[in-house]
Amino acid sequence: MEVVPLGSASEIAVLAADVIEAVVRRKRAAVLGLATGSTPLPVYQELIRRHNAAAGPAYDGVTCFNLDEYVGLPAGHEQSYRATIARELTDGLGISPAQVNGPDPSPAELPTAGERYEALIKAAGGVDVQLLGIGSDGHLAFNEPGSSLASRTRIKTLTAQTRKDNARFFDSPDEVPTHVLTQGLGTVLEARHLLLIATGDGKAAAAAAAVEGPVSASCPASVLQLHPHVTVLLDQAAASRLDRLDYYTEVYAAKPTWQGL
After folding, report:
1. Active-site entry in 137, 190, 193, 235
2. Has 137 been annotated as catalytic?
3. Predicted confidence (pLDDT) at residue 172 exceeds the cutoff of 90
4. Active-site option among 68, 118, 128, 190
5. Residue 84: its pLDDT value, please?
6. How far apart are CA 247 and CA 225, in angstroms?
7. Is 139 a catalytic residue?
8. Is 68 a catalytic residue?
9. In Å, how far are 78, 92, 145 from 87, measured between CA atoms?
């Protein structure tokens, strides 16, 4: 695991965009894993800015897989994660909706939604780089504390706190769905490169537990310690509770430029 302390969310956005673009330039048919929420937005905005300036790679061969999807929203709802990703990223990069995948929340298909999504990811050759955020309680995707570290894509019940956190995207807290389909921790770990970003002091305790604490279902994001290629990008606030902050800063400053992330 490589921990990279940076000064701001904008610095994180630039470096994360560099990572994603490098994968797409190296592999025209790259497979990207996408996360929603507030944290990835600066990254997506930076990618779109470069694309509009004709400074980014072509995305016509790229396939995308979303981490999760709400269950119970009307088809085409603006807060579905498929609609959110289209609005915030893929439409802006010119990626066809046919190349963007999410778990199928259709009521009649729920019993097999998880295994079908796993099959889609496998058929695409697996995810090349997976962008991730972290919850204030250490949850990863919608794998809340207590989730199996080997879990696969499945339906999960959202906690009251998570529904409260997501209520800002809806007209009323009562509109926030109670269930989601989410990639499991075991599914996430199969991506070739995991790129976790965290900003703000509200994520500091969770980031410290994920990076320096024991591997435990009590902090689902700690499972990232088991992956061979993880990059953690933190702003000053999110890095503030790391015991080895000076070490991470020193090591990154001395890293050979040819290594990249």
Report:
1. 137
2. yes
3. no
4. 68
5. 96
6. 17
7. yes
8. yes
9. 9, 7, 30
* Mean pLDDT computed over every residue of the chain: 96
What share of the chain has pLDDT > 70, as a percent?
A: 100
Options 21, 118, 139, 190, the catalytic residue = 139
How far apart are the C-alpha atoms of 103 and 118, rounded to whole Å?
9
Specify whether 193 is catalytic. Answer: no
Residues 101 and 120: beta-carbon distance below 8 Å? yes
Residue 158's pLDDT is what? Answer: 87
pTM, to two decimals: 0.95
Tokens found for residue 90? 């893929």
Query: How confident is the model over 232-246, as pLDDT tens digits?
Result: 999 999 999 999 999
Q: What is the set of domains in the chain, with CATH numbers? A: 2-255 (3.40.50.1360)
